[in-house]
Every structure is written in structure tokens, then in C-alpha cells.
């Protein structure tokens, strides 16, 4: 009786899970195809920077990317992000944090400091300089986002999340929920394991993308590599000072120590190349 009822529930919920996974994937595709237009409709502040566009042009050439429309926006957070893919006809969006422009505009610097003081407490505002990028860090940031666009990382994330959701549900329903011999405590334990495996798959994909973006950006030239190390060290400093009141680590990014180690290895490779010239 119990198995029969669980089978009915499984079959009833299955199309809803499939629909949710499908919507996640399709929605991401639609966002990628219309990223610049959507950003404009959301009221994001569009910016034009000759210096930044020059870095983008160099990056597109170095990464062999055929993207003809890159829209620069000012985001609201402390990190950059990108939208769209290299195959999107409408172009792509790179949203830069306000701190990206702080050294060129004192008013922006004071505005950011006031915002941090209001939102996160005075302690974070005291360390605002750790978020202000050097010229090399600006270069690294742009190249890092171009790598995400080149590999359509947002598409990969959506596909992985949707697939693990749908496949995980099928495994759970067929092998665990409907089992006639598995005790309930074992079912609960196996369910937890399945959730953890699905979660680990997604996290490993996120980390792989971030490390690849770091690697590709830093490998282009020594300046970008130094910029990556500068950026990571700034965040490392803030994390040490503010931990545990405010953490920069997130599940979508690898530990700062791992990113720093990879960048330092690339820097050593650049130095060996320069010595051999």
C-alpha cells in the first residue's frame, strides 16, 4: 500500500521536476541571447571606457573570440559578472563593480565608502582600498569575464543544475523511494547522500569554471597575471580582517588560497619564459 502510494506521488511530481529543470535551461538561453537588451531594460548604468574597451579588444584577439558587441555596465556589488555567450548575436554584457572606476573619480570613491558603511558596517568601509583594483587587476578582471563568455559558462551551469535535478529525482524515486526492502532510516541516509552528490557536482563545475577563467586571463601576459594576484590578495586581506563577520568565499568560487596558488604558478611560468628570451 505504502509503495503504491509513493509510486503515485513520484509519477505525479516527475513532470513538475522536469518542467523546473527545463525552465532553468531555457531561461538561461533566453537571457544569453538578449543580455544587453535586458540589462538596459533593468536600468543598469551603461558606461563607456576607452581603456577598458582596449583591454576587451586585446582579450578578444588573444582568446580568438568573434564577439562584436560588448556592452559595459556598472553593477551594484563588489565583484564583476558577465552575461551572454560568444555565440549570442545580440552581444554580451560585462558588469563591473563601482570600485573598478574609483581611482579615476574621487566622488565614486566616497560614494562607495558611504554605501559600504551603511550596508555592511564601518569595518568594511575602513578596508575599501582592498577592493580598489590596480591597473593590472582591472585588466585581469575583464579577461576573466571574457573567458566565462568564451566558454558559455552560464549555459554550462544551467545545464548541469537542470540535469542533476532531473536525473537525481529519477534515481531517488526509482531506487530509493519505491524500494520495498530498504528501511526508512536507510532511505533517509541515501537521500542525503544523493543530495550531497548532486550538490558536489554543481560546486565542482563552478570551481572548474572559475579556475579556468583565472588561468586563461593570467596566461595572456604577465600584467594580467600580476593583476590576478593583486586582486586575490586584496580579497584575502579583507577576509582575514573581517572573518567571520563578513566572508568573501562562496560556494560558486574556489577558496582564495587555491586561486592564489594557481596564479602564482602561472606567474612563475611567465618569469621562466622571460628569462629564456
Short description:
By secondary structure, the protein is mainly alpha-helical. 69% of the residues lie in helices and 5% in strands. The protein contains 10 helices and 4 strands.
What features would you highlight for this structure?
single chain; 277 residues; mainly alpha; four-stranded mixed sheet; 10 helices
Topology record:
Blueprint: H1 2-33, H2 35-41, E1 45-46, H3 50-62, E2 70-74, E3 81-83, E4 92-96, H4 106-119, H5 122-126, H6 135-150, H7 153-177, H8 184-220, H9 222-242, H10 256-275
Parallel strand pairs: 2-4
Antiparallel strand pairs: 1-2, 3-4
Tally the beta strands.
4
Bin the helical content.
55-70%
User: Biggest sheet, open or closed, and with what strands and sense?
Assistant: 4 strands, mixed
Strand coverage percent: 5-15%
Query: What is the chain-wise order of helices and strands?
Result: HHEHEEEHHHHHHH
Number of helices: 10
Shape: elongated
What is the CA–CA distance across the termini? Answer: 77 Å
Average pLDDT works out at 78
Strand order of the largest sheet: 1-2-4-3
Contiguous low-pLDDT stretches (5 residues minimum) are: none
Q: Over all CA atoms, what is the radius of gyration?
A: 22 Å
